[in-house]
Design brief:
The chain is α/β, with parallel strands linked by helices. The chain is built from 12 helices and 10 strands.
Length: 356
C-alpha cells in the first residue's frame, strides 16, 4: 500500500506527546488527549453530539497544521457545513469524502465524487476509503458512521473483519481515528468496544435515572460479564441446551472483575444520589473496583437555576470542575497501581457462596 512508504510519525515510547481531542476539558480528563495512531469510538444515539465533537477533533488538527479527513456515509458535506456554521466554525482545510446513498445526496453537481454504497459491495466501499486515505495522507480521520458499514456487511463476522481491516490500515498509515456509531444496531454485543483503543459514550440527560443508552451499555456489560464465551456449548441459541449447561454447574464467570472505574453524576434539581448508587452498584456487582472515595461523585450544578444559564453556572463552578478531574486522576492512578500489582483488593481471593 502507498502508506508503506510514509515515514513513521511516532515510535513506541510511552512518553510521546498525545494528540488533542479538540476539547480542553476532555484533554484534561484524558491526561493530555488521545494516544497517536490509535482508533477511538464515539458512541451515542442520534443528537447526542457525536458529529460536533468529532469536528472539533479535526478542527484542532487543522489549527495545528495537521491534515484531516472526514469520511461520511451518513451525512453530506452540505449538512456538515451547516453543523459547523451553527458553531461559528469553517471546514476549510478539512477534506470531506462522501459515501452517501443517492436519495440523501443534496448536491449532485458538487466538486466531490459521490459513490453509492447501496450499489457496491462492502469490500469495494472499504477500498474506496483506502484509496482516499492514501491520496490525502491525513493525520486525523473521522468515520461517520459505522452503522452503514454494519448494514452493508449483513453478518457480524464480516462486519468485524472489515472494521479490523480499517483499524489495521489506519494504524499502518499513522492516522489517529475517531469512528462514530449511533447505536442503531439491535445486536447485543460489544464488538466495537473490543476493537477500539478507547470508547466515549455520549448520552442525553435524564432526570432521576440513567439514560436509556447508558442502561443499554450496562445491560450489555452484565450479559458479557456472566455470559457464555463459547456459543458452541449451547448450539447457538438453543434455550433447552442453555438451561442444561447452567443447571449442570455454570460458574457465572465475571469476565470484567478487577477492572477499575470512576463515576460522575450531575443534576440541577434532584436524583443525583440515586443515579450514582445505581451505577456504582451495577459496577460493584460485576466485580469492578472503584478508584477510591473521590472516584464516586455526584454534584448539583446550577441548583434550581434557569436552563438558559446552565453553561455559565458550570463555567463558574471551578470546584466541581476540579472534582471531575480528580475522578479521572484517581482512575488513572488506580489503573497504574493495578498494572503494577499494587492496587489493594482485600476480598479478591474470597470465594462467593452465591456465584451468580
Amino acid at each position: 500500500m502507498a502508506c508503506d512508504t510514509a515515514p513513521a510519525r511516532t515510535d513506541e515510547r510511552a512518553d510521546l506527546p498525545r494528540i488533542s481531542t479538540g476539547s480542553e476539558g476532555l484533554d484534561d480528563i484524558l491526561g493530555g488527549g488521545f494516544d497517536r495512531d490509535r482508533l477511538y469510538l464515539y458512541e451515542g444515539q442520534p443528537g447526542t453530539g457525536k458529529t460536533t465533537i468529532a469536528l472539533q477533533f479535526l478542527l484542532e488538527g487543522a489549527r495545528r497544521g495537521e491534515r484531516g479527513l472526514y469520511i461520511t456515509l451518513s451525512e453530506t458535506k452540505r449538512e456538515l457545513n451547516l453543523v459547523a456554521r451553527r458553531h461559528g466554525w469553517s471546514l476549510d482545510g478539512i477534506d470531506v469524502f462522501e459515501l452517501v446513498p443517492p436519495e440523501t445526496t443534496l448536491d449532485p453537481e458538487g466538486e466531490l465524487t459521490v459513490f453509492h454504497p447501496a450499489e457496491v459491495e462492502l469490500s469495494e466501499t472499504t477500498n474506496l476509503v483506502f484509496r482516499e486515505v492514501e491520496r490525502t495522507n491525513p493525520v486525523r480521520v473521522v468515520v461517520d458512521s459505522l452503522s452503514e458499514l454494519r448494514l452493508l456487511a449483513q453478518s457480524p463476522l464480516r462486519y468485524r473483519r472489515q472494521v479490523l481491516a480499517l483499524k489495521h490500515f489506519f494504524a499502518h498509515c499513522h492516522c489517529t481515528v475517531i469512528v462514530l456509531d449511533d447505536l442503531s444496531s439491535s445486536a447485543d454485543d460489544l464488538q466495537l468496544h473490543s476493537i477500539a483503543h478507547g470508547v466515549i459514550l455520549l448520552t442525553p440527560c435524564n432526570w432521576y435515572h440513567a439514560s436509556s443508552s447508558m442502561k443499554l451499555m450496562i445491560d450489555r456489560l452484565v450479559c458479557a460479564d456472566g455470559g457464555n464465551p463459547d456459543p458452541t456449548l449451547t448450539h447457538g441459541k438453543d434455550a433447552d441446551k442453555a438451561k442444561e449447561v447452567e443447571l449442570a454447574g455454570w460458574a457465572y464467570p465475571k469476565h470484567l472483575a478487577g477492572r477499575v472505574y470512576g463515576v460522575v453524576v450531575h443534576g440541577d434539581v434532584a436524583g443525583i444520589e440515586e443515579t450514582r448508587y445505581a451505577l456504582c452498584d451495577w459496577l460493584d456487582w460485576m466485580g469492578l473496583v472503584d478508584a477510591g472515595a473521590q472516584s464516586r461523585l455526584d454534584r448539583f450544578i446550577g441548583y434550581y437555576q434557569p436552563y438558559a444559564t446552565s453553561h455559565e453556572e458550570l463555567d463558574r463552578d471551578t470546584a466541581v470542575q476540579e472534582e471531575v478531574r480528580n475522578v479521572a486522576r484517581a482512575v488513572m492512578r488506580a489503573v497504574r497501581d493495578l498494572r503494577e500489582g499494587k492496587l489493594s483488593q482485600p476480598d479478591a481471593d474470597l470465594k462467593r457462596p452465591r456465584p451468580k
